[in-house]
């Protein structure tokens, strides 16, 4: 039962990150509200950087799904644990930019916490 929960949670996270990345690459304005105040959604330079973030998210989610599909639970858990650093750093960027605490804690740090929980479950299986 623990394995089903661990793999289901990890797979949902991987799929969500792939979906966010695909959306961000196709429509970079999707990321405009990611927590940095005063980000102009119509700035073409910013949109190029947000597209890079979309590519990073898409690739990260794909790596998680590959580790889940083809690796052991330990490998998948280790990859998930390492990947949890990305939302931590995203949250720190928002904090440093004096962005909304709801974005840093409610989105980025909460995502990292769920990823760590999934990683721990995978490592216990």
Secondary structure blueprint with pairings:
Blueprint: H1 2-26, H2 44-70, H3 73-83, H4 85-96, H5 101-124
Helix pairs in contact: 1-2, 1-5, 2-3, 3-5, 4-5
At a glance:
By secondary structure, this protein is mostly helical.
Task: Explain what this protein looks like in three dimensions.
This protein is mainly α. The protein contains five helices and no strands. Helix 2 runs antiparallel to helix 3. The protein is globular. The model has no long low-confidence stretch (mean pLDDT 92).
Note the main sheet: none
What structural category arises from helix and sheet content?
Answer: mainly alpha
Please estimate the helix content. over 70%
**What is the beta-strand fraction?**
under 5%
The whole-angstrom Rg is 15 Å
- The total of beta strands comes to 0
The span between the termini is 10 Å
Low-confidence stretches at least 5 residues in length (pLDDT < 50)?
none
Average predicted local confidence, pLDDT? 92
Overall 3D form: globular
Total DSSP helices = 5
Q: What's the helix-strand series?
A: HHHHH
């Amino acid at each position: 039962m623990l394995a089903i929960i661990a793999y289901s949670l990890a797979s949902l996270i991987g799929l969500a990150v792939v979906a966010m990345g695909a959306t961000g690459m196709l429509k970079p304005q999707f990321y405009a509200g990611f927590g940095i105040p005063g980000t102009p959604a119509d700035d073409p330079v910013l949109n190029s950087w947000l597209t890079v973030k979309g590519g990073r998210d898409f690739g990260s989610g794909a790596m998680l799904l590959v580790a889940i599909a083809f690796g052991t639970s330990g490998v998948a858990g280790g990859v998930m644990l390492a990947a949890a650093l990305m939302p931590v750093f995203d949250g720190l960027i928002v904090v440093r930019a004096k962005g909304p605490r709801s974005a840093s804690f409610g989105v980025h740090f909460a995502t990292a916490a769920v990823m760590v929980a999934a990683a721990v479950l995978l490592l216990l299986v």
